[in-house]
From TrEMBL:
Residues 243-360 form the Acyl-CoA dehydrogenase C-terminal domain. The lineage of its organism: Bacteria, Pseudomonadati, Pseudomonadota, Alphaproteobacteria, Acetobacterales. Pfam families: Acyl-CoA_dh_2, Acyl-CoA_dh_M, Acyl-CoA_dh_N. Residues 124-213 form the Acyl-CoA oxidase/dehydrogenase middle domain. Residues 14-87 form the Acyl-CoA dehydrogenase/oxidase N-terminal domain. It comes from Pararoseomonas baculiformis. The keyword NAD does not apply. This is Acyl-CoA/acyl-ACP dehydrogenase. It comes from the Bacteria. Keywords: Flavoprotein, Oxidoreductase.
Amino acid sequence: MMDGTLLPVHSDPARELARRFSAGAAEHDHEGSFPHENIAALREAGLLSLTVPAEFGGPAIGLEAATRIVGTIAEGCPATALVLSMQLIQQRGIARNVAIPHALRRRLALGALRGELMNALRVEPELGTPARGGLPATTARRTADGWSLTGRKITATGSPALDWGLVWARTDEESPRTGLFLLPMRAPGLRIVETWDQAGLRASGSHDVLMKDATVPADHALELRAPQEWTLRDGDAVAWNTLLIAALYTGVARAARDWLVRFLRGRIPANLGQPLATLPRMQEAVGRIEALILTNERLVASAAREETTAAELGLVKTVAADNAIAAVQEAVSLCGNHALARSNPLERHLRDVLCARIHTPQPDAALLDAGRAALLPI
């Protein structure tokens, strides 16, 4: 978790991008449209290749730096930050997986340096998230030239802009194997069905991907195993998944805090004759928000620097999600009707931050893992 280098402290392209992205965030949220221009800006700034290894010419940044960048981007547009998170996670996972031929890893790394976008396609209507077990319904069938994929994936974040999909599927063999298939997102037999119409992260383009005999080359079956052989979790992958998500929603909480501060400084009720920011009650409430955000920032940074168990990482993500939600809800409670006006961003921040609990591990799974680790073996 501590490999890689930090970006120079004087270089902060993410901050400028966040300011740009915030200008269009409300429109994309209202329309449920995908922010293609934001992805283009990430590509131009080189942020889509941050986890490409140095051996392939990439910056290979470490986890702590990645959490700062994702959290900053999330202040401007959390949907864009989620797409970026998935890109960094998947690119790092591919680069570290020595089971994948070196030539293919190099090819994908060079593609990322050119700005190619990747995400995993794992969740299914019946299966839900594979993290809870079960075989995928998506089937991979052998062909003369490779594999043919048939199935439906849901919540495919970034789907309108993806170049590659890492499809979790089962083989049609007598004893099925499961694994990832590298699918070009313009392959024949693939169709994106625009189903994403959620309350939060509306601009994330997390649509369904429908595959009907979508073909992939033979060497694009990245790693196939018997289902029971997938029980061990990759600690590095768990760390990147949990902490980037924790950082993202902490960024949403910071955006809500910043709007609240501006509102309280500028709001002067006629009966008060001075800004709401001067009231001790408001100052105390904002102090609670500051405490929640500070706790998240320190938790995430510490976990990114240190060796942390999977159970602990699940708790960090759970606590960070709860804190971020509590911070935004506190801001909403202070503003009354102003907080829920569509003309103000606070109601959007509330809808976005509520998505924090959806990501793996969900609270019940994280708490169960932590409890088992504490109680067993007896």
